[in-house]
User: What shape does this take?
Amino acid sequence: MSIYLPIAELSVNMFVLFGMGAAVGFLSGMFGVGGGFLMTPLLIFYNIPPAVAVATEANQIVASSFSGALAHFRKGTVDVKLGTMLLIGGLMGSTLGVYIFSSLRDAGQLDLIISILYVVFLGSIGTLMTIESLNAIRKSKAGDTQPVKRKNHDSWIHALPLKVRFRKSKLYLSVLPILALGMLVGILAAIMGVGGGFIMVPAMIYLLRVPTNVVIGTSLFQIIFVTAYTTVIQSTTNQTVDVVLAFILMVGGVIGAQFGAAAGHKLKGEQLRALLGLLVLAVCARLAFDLVATPSDFFNIVSSLDQGGH
Amino acid sequence: MRFPAILILSVFILIQALSPLRAASLQMGVSVDVVPVGSDFNGADIVIFGSIEGAAQDPLYRGEYSVVIKIEGAPETLVIRQKERIAGIWVNNQSESYDNVPSFYSVVASRPLSEIAPAGTLKMIGLGIDNLGAIPQQFDEPVFKLEPGEFSDALRRIRRENGLFAEDPKALENLSPTLFRATVSLPANVPIGEHNVTSYLFRDGILLATNENSFRIEKVGFERWIYNLAHEQSLIYGLMAVLMAIFTGWFANVIFRKN
Assistant: This one.
């Protein structure tokens, strides 16, 4: 069944979009990431104009992260204090990111820079996660019952001033690295058109050493606000949020996320991290391939009628 | 920018009008004034019909009359970029800009254009995808034709693949020696806005008459409301989009909690 998208100005198959939403939703529910890093490239691949895909995806992530965060709230696995700190950094970062985004666009080659950013970040994060979690799995299989050391005290991060106690995360940590992380993710989120969970989750685990069970809920909590902010900014500056497209993706996404979350509970933390690492690497490989592979068409057209474009 | 075209055309028609064939003229109508674009829009067909007038009285009638119909959307500026490999990565490198490229261009006839009129005539009146008028921005002097070249060929090819440039030498049907009807398919990605319809009457490769008409493609109902809100009340639209997302997320959570 086809449906006409009023902002994207094209007719699409509703079930294809719904299926894409459900599939990405399943993965995002399982891993606690917004799924934007999967959905945005998928939408562009499905001929949605990049500017619309990026802006609409932010709107969709509001729904999926809100739904996910509610579930984590009930289980008590959200550190609101930590999430709020990350959010303050995130809002500063995304404001800066929107500014960088438009100056990069004015300079041209924004597509290329976005692709390279994706490849660099997905590649390094995916490799780190996969190696770390495979080591952890190997250790537990070898019957090594020695618990993973939490190196709380020998990290430079823990030597920084302005320390605050985060009871839920059982952390006593300086606000500076938290604000900086929030800000970095905010900048990247605005430029790459994603929620930033795929950077936030591993950074919280490996840099801040937040317990894994609190990480996902707290990351989702922060993503709700950053993507809501991005949706409003994109609506007012570019008019590229397509609510019809967003709604179809949302409905598919929240349904998929419920099943994904259930599947996620059946897996151990390190298994989950290994799978997410491999998924991130797969997307990275695909994007890297597109950068170096001979394109099927050497020419592309940009119309003055399609405003913006990323 | 259309001026030279109109001038050439007028002179052309004037010459024709002074010839013994002057009696012939064209009448034309379009089946709709407005093509509505709603949520189920997936392209549309419009019917263009008309008659050749004064043909019967023509004492010199010998050849066959041919009608060609052109549908043209609003002009736009296009940038065509070419990818090149730099340090192993494919990068948009060279580009060319074209002004006044029709956002939609469709030509229908009852047989191939090359059989209807000589190439020179088609080129002069800019009829057919290969004879389409557009102005490359890098030339100071307006160049009337989109001359063959790597970039303009790519433009034509990509637009053809998108369905935005089309030529159908079979879509026009001659119901009688003087009556014709054409069915033109508008693809789902047809641009919104005013579209001009021009019909051309040829005989023995000579342009005898033209006629103009137009129709609009418009968003209606919900789609129109959404589009207008997004552009005129963008802050409210953005906040609404966020509220919709929060409600959807909450609603899904409530439903699935029971299971």
